[in-house]
Amino acid sequence: MKLRIAAAVAALINSLGSVSAEELTIRFGHPGTGLDNRQYSQGDATSYARARELIEKEFASDKDIKVEWTYFRGAGPALNEAVAAKQLDFFLLGDLPAIVGRSRGLEHKFLFATTRHEPIYLAVPIDSDIKSIDDVKGKKVALFKGTNLQLATDRVLSTHGLTEKDVRFINLDTSAAAAALTSGNVDAVFGGPEFLALAKKGIVKIAYTTKGDDPTLGRHTSYLVTAAFEQAHPDVTQRVVTTFINAAAFASDPANKDEVFDGWSLSGFPKDAFEGDIEGDTLANRLNPLIDDFIIARYKDQVARAKAYGLIKGDVDVDAWLEPKYLQQALKDLKLVNYWSSYDAHGEIAKLGDLNKKQTN
Q: Could you give phi then psi for residue 242, rounded to 5 degrees?
């Protein structure tokens, strides 16, 4: 009798263990989709990891762990809603939506930078007389508000003596903005490398880019994890971060550029758009994951600007938001501690990384 009871108890414990284990699905989110709503993106190492299923391969032997990806056409604002509804664990966000979410009480932690110096492009019709930022004054211009593009554009305008009030901004997502521009419903669009593909086809022209301008201009993104997931699964969090940092190291090597662009092209954007976007820059610089003084300064500056523009009501303590221990452990485990260069608050190299030394020798 005792043996039967013991066996029953053991079976119950095993059953409960199996049920709880099956419930561990790691839910990843990404702001935006590829062309035609493709569930892939481009421009950062986590997008390459998604294209080559590196996260899935990392957890392939863990039969009790599943991986789920969700791409949001509504970009950062829509992703923030999903985080508020507790539908995501890990996610990439641009600086503004991440700051807005944090200011509204979303509890997540800043794990590593995903892109820095991401250029902004001002696209205009082929026959447009807009030739510079100064020429957008009084014009009807499309801008995807609520994304990191908004604050970055505001900063571009301010460096040229303009504000949002000087421009007739129309809030449109990327696809709608491209359609509005090509149909003549707007005079210009502030956007990303997707407009380089249209320029390559002679449909639009690029009147301005932040590349070569003030080094503090451009957009920045980061990878975040909910505080609840990180606290419950620190070991899984470390494996996720280490996988992404390994992907960033692979993508940063110039020898792997074509393979990285092939992965990004699953988003539907052509490889020549990536070539044009990275021209004059390097993937090592763009995909640098370090939480250095430059990244910290940019986020603190964006917090101040978001508050000044009335985009957030409360304050955001950037220092308390950062959780660099997983990045530091990944760099140590992968022997990448000195791989990338670190930058000071003004964008100047503070410490030259091994990869940059290799490329300059």
A: -60, -40
